[in-house]
Amino acid sequence: MTYNTRRFLIKDIREPQENEFVFGCAERIVASSEFNRMVKFLEERGFKFKPIDNRSLPDDFHGDRLVGYRIEYEEPKKY
Predict the structure, then answer these.
(1) Domain ranges of the chain
(2) pTM surpassing 0.70?
(3) pLDDT tens per residue across span 10-51
(4) Are 33 and 41 in contact (CB under 8 A)?
(5) Helix, strand counts (H, E) of the chain
(6) Beta bridge partners of 50
(7) Residue 75 and which of 6, 8, 29, 42 are 20 to 30 A apart at CA?
């Protein structure tokens, strides 16, 4: 039995561009600097993050409260 595996050589590592956001799969997303960078990016473009009251959110399988945000778009004010 042979496996056809493709191998890659990493030649360059780059920082994410301002509109790219990368999260680790085991990371608590809302506590990460990447999540905070994403929120700042969206807020600068007119989106507002409003936290959802955690009492109205369900618990996860570990009994921990979930974190939720309502995202609203505010039209830029024209002067």
Answers:
(1) 29-73
(2) no
(3) 677 777 677 666 655 555 776 778 888 888 899 999 998 888
(4) no
(5) 1, 2
(6) 70
(7) 29
- Structural tokens at position 1: 């039995």
Contact between 22 and 34 under an 8 Å Cβ cutoff? The reply is yes
CA 19, 76, 67, 37 torsion-angle sign: positive
Beta-bridge mates of residue 49: 71
**How far is 26 from 56, CA to CA, in rounded Å?**
25
Residue 63: C-alpha distances to residues 57, 59, 60, 66, 68 (Å): 12, 5, 5, 9, 16
Question: Which residues make beta-bridge pairs with 61?
Answer: none
What tokens were used for 8? 């890659």
d(CA 43, CA 13): 28
